[in-house]
Amino acid sequence: MIRLANITVRFGEEYLFRDLTWNIGLGERVALVGPNGAGKTTLFKIALGLFFPTGGQVVKSRRARMGYLPQEEVVLGGRTVLDEALTAFGDRLALKDEADELSAALAAMPPDDPECPAVLERYGELSSLFEQHDGYQLEASTREVLQGLGFAAGDLGKRVETFSGGWQMRLALAKLLLSEPSYLFLDEPTNHLDIEAMDFVESFLKGFKGAVAVISHDRYFVDRTVSKVCELELGRFSAYHTNYTGYLEEKEKRRDQLVKRQGQQAKEIGHVREFIARWKGNYIKRAMVTSRERMLDRLLAERIEIPSDPRSVRLRLPEPPHSGKRLVELKGLTKSYGKKTVLSGIDLLVGRGQKVALTGVNGAGKTTLMRILAGQDASFSGERVQHPDVHIAYYAQQTAEMLDHGLTVLETIEQAVPDLRQEQARTVLGAFLFPGDAVYKKVKVLSGGEKSRLALCKILMTPANLLVMDEPTNHLDLSSKIILEQALRDYRGTLVLVTHDRYLMDRVADAVVDVSDQGIRIYPGNYTDYMWKKQQLQPPDNNVQTKKPGAVSAVKDDWREAKRRKADSEAAGRKRQRQVQELEERIHKLEERQRELESDLADPGVYSKGERMKELMNEFQANREELARLYDRWECCHSDGARGQPGGDAPLGSD
C-alpha cells in the first residue's frame, strides 16, 4: 500500500491543498479527477517521490516498483523501436547477455581447461533462470504490445528518433505495460492514442496485476478501467467507490446535501450576527456576545463552498441559417498524396440535421475527408457538390495558428461575433477555461492548448448550418467536455465530427462513418451501435465457439445473462465498498483524534496533572493499536477487491 498522510503543498501564501490523506491499495484501480490546476499531477509526483510536499509524509514499501507515464512528451532515441521496448526487461536480458558471453567463452576453451566445468555450470544456471522468467517469450510479448498500440510490423526495426513525439509517447507506454510495475501511474495516457490503441490498453489493464492510478479526461476510458474515483477540488479530497458514471451520480447527491448544509449554515450565521448586533452594547450579556463572536469567526472560517457544476452552464450555439435537405455531396472522390492513394471512389451525402462521426485507424484518411467536406482541400479527382445556402464553420488544430496575436481573448470572440453581448462571450469563455481576468490576456501569450480552446470558442459562436470539427475535445477538461457535449446535442444544424472521444461519439452521433483503405462504410446509430454492428460483421474465429449467422436473439440472451452476472458482481462490490468506506471514515476520525492527543501531550502543563496525563497516554496507545488493526483490515478489503473486482468486462451495447 502507498499512503500519503496529511500532505500539504503551499506556494508562497497560497495552498494547493492541506492535510490531504490518500491510500492506494494493492490491485486498486483508481482515477484522480478534478479541474485543471487542482494539483492532480502534483499529487502523482508526491506519491512517486518526484516532488516533496510542504508537509506530511509518504509511506510505501521499499520493494514496490513504480511506473509513471507523464503528461509531457518523453524523448527517446538511439535504438530501434523493438530494442527500446525490450529495455523494459533489463534484468532478464542481462541474464541472456551474460549467458551469451559464457557461451562464446566456452566455444573458445579447450575441453581440458580447468575453468570449463565452472563456466558450464554458471551457463546452465543463467539459461535456466532466463527460461523460468519466460525469457524466450519476451520478444513475442513485446511485438504484441507494440502492434496493439498501433506500430506496424515494419516500424519495429526503425530508429526511435524518426518517430514523432506522439509515437514516442506510445513507445514509453509500451515499456511501462511490459515492465509490470507494482504501481502504475498514468497521466493522460490516451492523449496520443487512436481508438484501436485505447481498446488495447483497456484490455491490457484488465489483466494487469498491479495497482493503477490514472488521470484522464477520457470518460469512456475511465469508466472501463477504474472501480474508484478520487476527486481533488477546492483543496478537498473525496473518494467515490464506483466508476466515472457512478461518481457523477453520487457527486450530484452529495452536492444536493452540501447545498442544504450551506443553507442551514447561512441561517445559523444570520442568527448569530443578529444576536451580536442586538446585544453588542449590553454589559450584562457581554460574555454571551463574546462567545457568539468566537462562534461567528469559526462559522465564517468553515463556510461551506459549493463547487461549480458544469451542467449548470448551458451553452447555446447560434441558430443555424436555413438550408436545403442536401448540404454537401461527394461523388466518386479519390485523393492521393504522390503515389499513395488515401481515399478511393468515395460516395457520401451529408444531409440536413445529421450528426456524423468519422472513425478509423490513424492514417486512414479521416482528416483528409473532413478537409474536403469543409471545402479546405480541392486537390482531388471526382466531384464535390456544395448546395446553396450552406454556411460551413470548420475547426481543426491548425485553426489556432490563424488567430490574431494582437487581440485579447475577449476581443477575439467579439470581433468574430459582433452581435454577441459581452456577458454571453465571457460565459462561453469561462466554460472553456478562460475565467475572470483571463479574458484580457493577449493571444500571443497563450499556450498551444489555450489557443486551441479559444479557436474552438470562436468557431462555436459563428452562425453556421454545417459544423465540421476535427478533435474538438483536445485540451478540454472533463467539465468543459460536458458543456461541449450538451451544446452539440442541442445544436439544430448539421455536424461532421472526428474525435477519439468515444463517449462524445456515443452521446452526439446519429451515424458513424468508418473510413479505411477499403473505402467507407456507414453505420446508423451512435458509437455503441457501431461497435455492435461491426462485431457482427467480423469473420468468426475458428478457435472459439461462434454464434449462428442472424441469431440476434441468442446474442441478446447472452447479453442479458452477462448483465445479470455483472449486477450480482456489482452488488457484492458495493457491499465491499461500503465496508471500505466505513473503515476509511473510522480511520479518519481516529487520525484526527490522534493529532488532538499529540497536541495535548505536547503541552508541558499536562505533566503536572498525573491522572490527566495517564488518561491521555492510555487513550493515545489504545488509538494507535486500533489504527494498526483498521489499517490491516483496510488492506485486506482491497486485496479481496483486487482478486474479484466488480464491474468487469461488459458486452458491447450493455448499460
Question: What is the strand and helix layout of this fold?
Answer:
Blueprint: E1 2-11, E2 14-24, E3 29-33, H1 40-48, E4 55-59, E5 66-69, H2 81-86, H3 90-108, H4 116-132, H5 138-148, H6 165-179, E6 183-187, H7 195-206, E7 211-215, H8 219-225, E8 228-233, E9 236-240, H9 244-279, H10 286-301, E10 326-337, E11 340-351, E12 355-359, H11 366-373, E13 381-386, E14 392-395, H12 409-416, H13 422-431, H14 448-460, E15 466-470, H15 478-490, E16 494-498, H16 502-508, E17 511-516, E18 519-524, H17 527-537, H18 552-601, H19 610-643
Parallel strand pairs: 3-7, 3-8, 5-6, 6-7, 12-16, 12-17, 14-15, 15-16
Antiparallel strand pairs: 1-2, 1-4, 8-9, 10-11, 10-13, 17-18
Feature tags:
655 residues, Rossmann fold, 5 domains, 19 helices, 18 strands, 46% helix, 18% strand
Q: Mind explaining what this structure looks like?
A:
With 655 residues, the protein is an alpha/beta fold. It folds into 5 domains: 69-227, Rossmann fold (3-Layer(aba) Sandwich), CATH 3.40.50.300; 263-307; 309-391 and 463-538, 3-Layer(aba) Sandwich (Rossmann fold), CATH 3.40.50.300; 393-462, no CATH class; 560-643, Orthogonal Bundle (Helix Hairpins), CATH 1.10.287. 46% of the residues lie in helices and 18% in strands. It is built from 19 helices and 18 strands. It has helices spanning 40-48, 81-86, 90-108, 116-132, 138-148, 165-179, 195-206, 219-225, 244-279, 286-301, 366-373, 409-416, 422-431, 448-460, 478-490, 502-508, 527-537, 552-601, 610-643; strands at residues 2-11, 14-24, 29-33, 55-59, 66-69, 183-187, 211-215, 228-233, 236-240, 326-337, 340-351, 355-359, 381-386, 392-395, 466-470, 494-498, 511-516, 519-524. It has a 6-stranded mixed β-sheet, with helices on both faces. A hairpin with a 2-residue loop joins strand 17 (511-516) and strand 18 (519-524). Helix 12 (409-416) crosses helix 13. The longest helix is centred in the C-terminal third of the chain and has 50 residues, at 552-601. The protein is flat and about 95 Å long. The two termini are 32 Å apart.
